[in-house]
Amino acid sequence: MKFLPFPADAGDAIIVKQCRKPGWAAREAQWLAAAANYRRFRGNPWRVRPAGFTGADAEALFALYDTRGASGPINRIRRPAVPFKSCPMCGSLGGRSLDHALPRQRFPEFSILRENLVPACESCNSGEKGTTYRGTWPARFIHPYYDRWASRALWRVEFDPDLDVLQFGPAALPHLPRGRRRIVDFHVKTLLGKDWRDSVRREWSPLPAKLRRRLGPNPTAEEVRTELEIRLQDAADTYGINSWDAGFLRGALADPLVIEKLVERINSLPA
Ligand SMILES: [Zn+2]
């Protein structure tokens, strides 16, 4: 959930260079056309169609990532000189990996196309997301190289009213335009899984004790809000505006019942 500049070596040069190798020249025109199509439709999984490579051609394209995936240029997408504050796809603090925005099983022609290689954490790149690359039309994932609007706050945690049970889910911010809201909702509901739910519970439990250390006993709802706003700023600066911490704090601040419950829990802490 972050807008990123294109990788340094995005563009056709990698295709042209590969097609100078023995046995590759015949694939060049179709491959370049597929890459142009990808850019024209901004990697949108509802607009970009598989280029139609089959048999040995599809296998050769698919396999390119196996030999190049750990190379310098692709590794620099995974681990840039200035590290990401959090996973550019889901906002976790998890390890560095790469995701094919359009999966190479269906789109072998984009297996090493830089525009299609998106830095992501390991959990984004496996488990919860699986082979899903789009939802029910028009839902799709945010594309960090094309969705410039992803640099702003996009989502928050929404809590069920019975806060003693603590049920919650991720949701797009309600003021986003309808089309973006569909995309963000699909994105967070698909990518934020068990690890994320554990992290929310980890934040929630000790929060009253932490707030009391800062605010003293019997704080007002307003004092709690102000402290959470400071924490949200800190989380946005340290981990990014769409990080898990920021989404949690935005959700708490948006819900008067959550503030009320925090005040109640602070007041019931043993002295
Ligand atoms: Zn992630």
Structural commentary:
The chain has 271 residues and is mainly alpha-helical. It has two domains: 13-148, no CATH class; 152-175 and 193-267, no CATH class. Helix content is 43%, strand content 7%. The protein has a two-stranded antiparallel sheet with strand order 1-2. Strands 3-4 form a two-stranded antiparallel ribbon. A hairpin with an 8-residue loop joins strand 3 and strand 4. The longest helix is centred in the last third of the chain and has 19 residues, at 221-239. The model has no long low-confidence stretch (mean pLDDT 95). Zinc ion (ZN) binds at residues 87, 89-90, 92, 94, 120-121, 123-124. Residues 87, 89-90, 92, 94, 120-121, 123-124 line the site of zinc ion (ZN).
